[in-house]
Specification:
mainly alpha; 9 helices
Length: 270
């Protein structure tokens, strides 16, 4: 079976067993070469942590993360968890149930190329669009794409090949928006505590990974997994808009304490 009725482990090996040892070695060599180049680039260009500036013993790192929690970070937790859910859902659920079980491993690599390409382009476009478009509109657009794909998979039990490609493209666009935009939120949240902020980011994102892979290991049906992710996406978006409201109130309070009037209020008085 395939699609929403797929059972884990039903994947066909079409397009996989035909690979010769030479092809496999070439793929492994490419993968290892890219990994080594990445390590070298990180070692050369990434600055190390200045222990004089961040004198934090390892045993106290977790306490520092916990102490840095505030209302705005708590409101970002559901959206951050969704970020992990969204990535792991594609890799663990969608890829196996709708790609591999239906078309074999031969199409899996092609779908990954499409997914990665669209995600990369969307990431660049969303970063540029952030200058002219409000971030809440960009994130709402990504959430709409995810909702559309989930509802389509839930209603259309066995989508056609073209529909699967369309879902991969839409999910890739959403993925390319979530990652840089949520990362920017955490970077702007506590400029002086970026290490703790990004620790929160990765912590709650990992919770999303754990949830989806846990559901898969537990043998939860694909339809039930989709029904589980839908309310989590809605909850994440609602909490994000609450975060925007709280951040706006926080900014207004700072302006009031400093005796600074917003630009629109100054224009009205003039």
């Amino acid at each position: 079976s395939s699609g929403i009725n797929a059972e884990y482990g039903d994947a066909t090996t079409e397009g996989f067993i035909s690979w010769g040892i030479g092809t496999r070695l070439n793929l492994i060599s490419i993968y290892l070469s890219i990994a080594l180049v990445s390590i070298l680039l990180l070692a050369v260009y990434i600055d190390g942590i200045d222990r004089a500036e961040y004198p934090i013993p390892t045993s106290e790192s977790l306490l520092r993360v916990v102490r840095s929690l505030n209302l705005r970070q708590i409101l970002l937790v559901p959206l951050t968890v969704w970020s992990g859910i969204e990535q792991s859902f594609f890799a663990a659920i969608f890829a196996e149930a709708f790609i591999v079980c239906s078309y074999g491993y031969g199409k899996y690599g092609l779908m990954l190329i499409i997914y990665s390409g669209t995600a990369s382009i969307a990431s660049l476009v969303s970063g540029v669009a952030r200058v002219w478009v409000a971030q809440k509109l960009i994130l709402s657009f990504a959430a709409t794409l995810n909702l559309a794909v989930l509802i389509l998979l839930l209603v259309w039990h066995l989508p056609s090949y073209s529909a699967i490609v369309g879902c991969v493209v839409l999910w890739g666009v959403a993925q390319g928006i979530w990652q840089p935009q949520i990362g920017a939120l955490y970077a702007e949240l506590n400029p002086g505590e970026q290490i703790a902020s990004f620790s929160h980011y990765r912590l709650w994102e990992s919770v999303g990974y754990t949830l989806i892979f846990g559901l898969k290991v537990g043998g939860v049906p694909v339809g039930s997994v989709i029904l589980t992710t839908l309310p989590l996406l809605v909850a994440g978006l609602i909490c994000y808009f609450l975060f925007v409201f709280v951040a706006w109130k926080y900014q207004q309070r700072i302006l009031d304490d400093c005796g600074i009037q917003p630009k629109n209020q100054l224009n009205n008085e003039q």
